[in-house]
Structures are given as C-alpha cells and as structure tokens.
Amino acid sequence: MSEARVRPGRFEEFRDVILDAVREFPLLHPGLVDHEVLVAPPDGLIYVSRWRSEEDLVRYAGENWRDQPVVLPGEEEYLVAPLQVRHFTIAPLT
Questions:
Q1: Separation between Cα atoms, residue 51 and residue 88, nearest integer Å
Q2: Which of 3, 9, 17, 39 makes an SS bond possible with 84, Cβ 3.0 to 4.6 Å?
C-alpha cells in the first residue's frame, strides 16, 4: 500500500488523477489480483494492491519495491510529503 498526503485544495483533482491512472492496471500488469483506492478527505489517499506473487510485484515496481513507492509522473506536485509505502502479507487465521 502507498499512502499520500495531499496539498490543501488539491484532493479532488489528485483523486481523479489516481483513479484514471490505475483503472487499467489489472489489464496492464499481469499478477495484479486486486486493487483499490481508499480516500479520507480532505488530504488522505491510500492505494492498496494485492499481487499473485512477489515476482509479479517486482516486475511492476522494480527491485527496490520494499522501500521505493511507484510514483506516477507529476504526482509529487499534489503531495505535501513523499509517498509512504508499506507491505503486508496475510497472516493465517488458523
């Protein structure tokens, strides 16, 4: 997941840019199982993606996927700070 903190007055525009950009991701990136955009106006947006395997994630995000978020062109102009990236795995409930 990557978390964005958006500049005042830029939230709706940023949300629309992100939604337009990721809409086709499942078709463009084999191995992307599911994704969603979570919004917390007025300044919070989280992109969550679920991948079939670590190899698929590396193909999308590169070798530094653990530490460096994927940033879309021009995205920085909307943000008050760099994207924060975190990775999770599923813990079995049994």
A1: 11
A2: 3
